[in-house]
Amino acid sequence: MATDLRELRGKLIAEQANAVQRLDERSYRVTSQSGNGTYLVTKAKMNRTIGWVCECPDFTYRQVKCKHIWGVEFSVALRQEVRRNVVIEPLSPNVCPFCASTRIIKRGIRHNEYGDLQRFRCKSCGRRFIQNYGFEKMRATPEAITSSMQLYFSGESLRNTQKFLKLRGVEVSHVAIYKWIAKYTALMEKYLKQIKPQVSDTWRADELFLKVKGDMKYLYALMDDETRFWIAQQVADTKYTADITPMFRLGKKVAGKVPHEVITDGAFNFHTALRNAYWRENDALAIRHVRHVRMSGDMNNNKMERMNGEIRDREKVVRGVKKPDSPLLKGYQIYHNYMRPHMALDGQTPADRAGIQIRGKDKWLTLIQNASHKQSDGSQEN
After folding, report:
1. Helix orientation angle between 158-167 and 142-153, rounded to the nearest 10 degrees
2. What whole-number distance in Å separates Cα of residue 309 and Cα of residue 267?
3. Range with the poorest average pLDDT among 1-5, 148-152, 174-178, 211-215
4. Helix, strand, or coil (residue 206)
5. For the chain, what are the domain ranges?
6. Helix, strand, or coil here: 94?
7. What CA–CA distance (Å, rounded) separates 199 from 142?
8. DSSP characters for 244-256?
9. What residues have CB less than 8 Å from 173, skipping those under 6 apart?
10. Of the ranges 146-150, 263-267, 294-298, 372-376, which one carries the lowest mean pLDDT score?
């Protein structure tokens, strides 16, 4: 009975405006029901399991799940429920891509030099179509192509990827694999620009040096603090003087809003770019710019440093980026956001946390299918 009462009170707390304030993914500040104080609720390891810990007397002395912990759990669940509004499904060969009808029949074979493709006709809308979205005229199978992309962006070189495919009976050059990666990275990037991630109001930005054609360059990256969604990027020639206004403007376009807080290091060009990018839409002085970050303490940029480490590890394998618009950088951004599960996000991807769910055993395949179908409806037979 007492547990039910605590759960009910926790639900009431979660429904109050600003009663549960998120500090980071493991810490929340919860207002007491009386309104006379607040309690810190944190996620910690207890008896070999991960659970919530609260400062309140109810939890401290009774070791029970208090109403403040219930409030945090309800608040997290509500926020995740609100974000689940974009679901990208794999295209089924048994469903019409135009009207979603299952009343489809086989209607002949299309023959060409790359193989035979089954042609279908929908008995509901009368339209004809083929189900090979994104892989038309490709000699290799979709599975070989998507496996190559997964191997490449998860850390393998082009030649090691080529060796893996050879073991699977697929004879292809490393140059062809690179062309696959360039083609499908561009296709997915164009498609994903149309989908807005639901990010928080706190963003982080940092720079990372890398070699492009042997010359020292800097990769600037903009990331959401809560979901770790990589929002935008820009390659620049210098570290402290580069104009990175385009990156912040792109961030606004991708997220559909401007942040309330931006966390960076002390480089002055971050502050200048913020003012240039957001002055008219939202008074730049109203955006809190935190610049006293350090590696530890109350304010740090460890999340950005972790992502920088991912990029650095990937760059070492390819021994430098060959050109500024390399598909490696754009493709890795897609891999980071949509494919790579993160331990800090409890095994979810940043896209999952940002309200974009990609379903299917092969997420690369699902994205390529939907991107191709969205872009080339005109190539389908009517």
Report:
1. 140
2. 20
3. 1-5
4. strand
5. 2-83, 202-322
6. coil
7. 32
8. -HHHHHHHHHHHT
9. 162
10. 294-298
Helix extents (H) in 135-211: 142-153, 158-167, 174-192
Helices 302-318 & 327-334 angle (0-180, nearest 10): 130
CB neighbour list of residue 200: distance below 8 Å, 6 or more residues apart: 22, 224, 225, 226, 227
User: What's the rounded Cα separation, in Å, for the pair 182 and 145?
Assistant: 12
Please, what CATH class does the domain formed by 202-322 belong to?
alpha beta
Half-sphere exposure of 312 (CA within 13 A, CB side): 9
- Among candidates 72, 69, 344, which has minimal Cα distance to 226? 344
The pTM assigned to this predicted structure is 0.73
Structure tokens at 179: 């062309």
Res 176: pLDDT: 94
Q: How many angstroms separate the CA atoms of 372 and 188, rounded?
A: 8
Say if residues 129 and 108 touch (Cβ distance below 8 Å): no
Kindly tell me the sign of the dihedral angle through the C-alpha atoms of 211, 307, 296, 285: positive
> Which two structure tokens, joined as six digits, stand for 363?
């997420």
Amino acid, single-letter form, for residue 39: Y
Query: Which residues have CB under 8 Å from 223's CB, separation 6+?
Result: 203, 204, 205, 229, 230, 231, 303, 304, 307
| Residues 176, 139 contacting (CB under 8 angstroms) | no
